[in-house]
Design a protein that fits this description.
Elements (H helix, E strand, L loop, with lengths): L3 H6 L5 H7 L6 H16 L2 E2 L7 H5 L7 E5 L24 H14 L10 H4 L3 E5 L4 E2 L11 H13 L6 E5 L1 H4 L11 E5 L16 H11 L8
Parallel strand pairs: 2-3, 2-5, 5-6
Antiparallel strand pairs: 1-4
Length: 228
Amino acid sequence: MPSITAEWKSGAPAPAWREILRPEFGKPYMHDLIAFLDAEIAEHRIHPNPANIFRAFSLTDFAAVRVVVLGQDPYPTPGHAHGLAFSVEEGVEIPRSLQNIFKEIQSDIGTPPPRGGNLERWSRQGVFLLNTALTVRSGASESHKGRGWEPFTSRAIEALAARPEPLVFMLWGRNARDKAPLIDATRHLVLEAPHPSPLSADRGFFGCRHFSRANEFLRKHGAAEIAW
């Protein structure tokens, strides 16, 4: 099975992301991460498929990002994760976290839940669907936490936060909210909430109104709204 380095070099990420994040592959933490993932793949099943690990960087190029949705780690259920935070392929039963996201959207802006859970339509509008860790062992949530993905995703957030255009950052869950210090909240809109998981959605995700607040901010700064 190809390594994550091979997947990155294969052209999956869009060109600007490739340039911004290429230096990370020469750093010690990435060497350790690659060794860990090679061992995991040899003994366990991981999600998403390695070909989809960098899918978020493929569908939403750096300059196209207007909103960042930052989650925790991929779904640990086989067939669910496909490289976009909270998204699943067409035909896959909608996970409960995503059901809760759709419930909040309906409550916030009135858009009824779609029949499917594929969020590529968001990605193509400039919504960067990123997790703090990009892989997970099958059936074991947060099993790849602390193994090296966090510096990589932090670098992506830092690069976005350095852009001159005001962006929206939605940080959902403890792991995502830990990235808040990387973002200048005087220039960008930083929205924080508990993770939409059934275990925590009632603690402040429901009623957060992130979707209307994001669109209001985009309008204020002359950008098109997201069709959530």
